[in-house]
Structure formats: structure tokens, C-alpha cells
Specification:
By secondary structure, the chain is an alpha/beta fold. The chain contains seven helices and twelve strands. The protein has a single domain, classed as 3-Layer(aba) Sandwich (Rossmann fold). The two termini are 30 Å apart. The structure holds adenosine-5'-diphosphate (ADP) and magnesium ion.
Length: 242
Amino acid sequence: MDLEIKDLAVKVNGKEVVKGVSLRIKPGELHVVMGPNGSGKTTLAKAIMGHPQLETASGDILADGKSILGLKANERAKMGIFLQFQNPVEIEGLGLLNFLNTARGAVSDEPLQYREFMNDIKSASKSLALKEELIGRSLNHGFSGGEKKKVEILQMHVLKPKIAILDEPDSGLDIDAVRVVAENVERMRKEYNMGMLVITHYSRILEYMGSTLLHVMKDGRIVREGGRELLEEIEKAGYSDA
Ligand SMILES: Nc1ncnc2c1ncn2[C@@H]1O[C@H](COP(=O)(O)OP(=O)(O)O)[C@@H](O)[C@H]1O
Ligand SMILES: [Mg+2]
């Protein structure tokens, strides 16, 4: 999917938080958004997914040239857009397996045999180094921060989206987990030619990922764009000069 964000402005509770962002993600491309806390990164991610609390003030979001602004989040998911939440929710009583199966059924019309589905989940859990017993438990209930983030990536394995937006997939993870998550995400990007938007504060995760198109967001706007050299500059100097 070719996802184009055109001069997008987004309001939260009447306040403009994203103030005219343009960004185009083509199939297979990895885009990275960095920037200080409160600059509107999560709001941008939620706006792409169609979060109901947000109001698009101006601009457009096009998928393969067609506006998706009128579509609800579940409709966008069905088109192949996926958002990994910065703070995944815990739902006691909703089995993880049940949740994954329902999510899959909601975005795909293709029937999948239970055995196939289970095999898919088992191999993905293994490559994520997620304890297999977790898939028999309630969604994220009592899971560690790292396990919750991995469950989001497990969900991505199951849904196989065309565009994946990952909101801080590496925050709260130990060094090994960052590598495991990055390798899984990167494998999917290549295998399915997924477009990706990764929001992060750390360059470490990018060490395991392919060539990078970096966008620096500050106070609702993209203020700098570049490649590895910009990443190094930010690592050294922070965002003050960005
Ligand atoms: N539901 C909300 N109600 C009020 N203000 C919000 C809400 N969500 C986000 N904001 C505000 O919007 C700004 C951007 O937030 P956010 O998109 O989460 O930034 P980032 O992800 O870059 O840290 C912040 O000032 C935040 O307080
Ligand atoms: Mg955020």
C-alpha cells in the first residue's frame, strides 16, 4: 500500500496537536519518527489508524490515492493498516488466543484452519522468544512490559498488515528483547513488503533495521528529514538544534 499523509492537522479536545505533517510511505519502506515527548508522534499514529477521539482539522490521508479519512479504525484495519500501541491494554478474561483469532477474522475473509493458525502462532512466539504458556492466558494480564510489546508484534505476525505503525516498540525492553523485536519486524517487512512507520527515542533498534528515512517531529511539525547522518547528529546533540 502506498500511504500518503498530506499536510495533516489533527486536533485533540479542540487543541491542534499535529500541525501540518506530510509523509509518504511506499511498500517496503521503513520510515522513522523521532522527537521530544509531547511533540504529537502518538497523535499522528492514532490519526492514521482513525482513532475516534481525534479530529482531523485539515489535510488528507490517502491509501493508494484514495482518501481514508471517512473510514473507521476497523475499516482501516481491514485495508491492512496496523497500529502497535505505545501502551497496550490488559483485558482480564479475554484469552490471548481468542483475541488473536478474532482480530484475524475481523481483517481477513480467508478461512484459516485452526491447526494452521496455531502453528503460525507457535512459530511466531518462538521467534519472539515469548513463553508459549502466555498464549493460554488473558490478554496482557500480568504480562511484563516487554511481553506486552512482544504480544503486539505477535498480533502483527497474525494480521500481516500492509502498513505497520509501531509506536515505541522498544521502550521498556531489555537489550536482547529490542534485538528480537527488531529482527521479527524487519523479517516481516521484507517478506511481505510492508511499509513501516516506527516511532522511537533510541537509535539502538535501528541498528537491526534496514536503511532509514528519518523524520524529526517537534511541536506538531516535521522539522528535519534525513538518513543515518541525521540520526548520529541527534544522538550527539539532542533535539535542541533540530
Ligand atoms: N486525549 C488527550 N487529551 C488532551 N491532550 C492530549 C491527549 N492526547 C494527547 N494530548 C496532548 O497532545 C500532545 C502530543 O501528545 P502525543 O501525541 O502523545 O505526543 P508524543 O507521542 O510525541 O509524546 C501533548 O501535549 C499531549 O498532552
Ligand atoms: Mg507517544
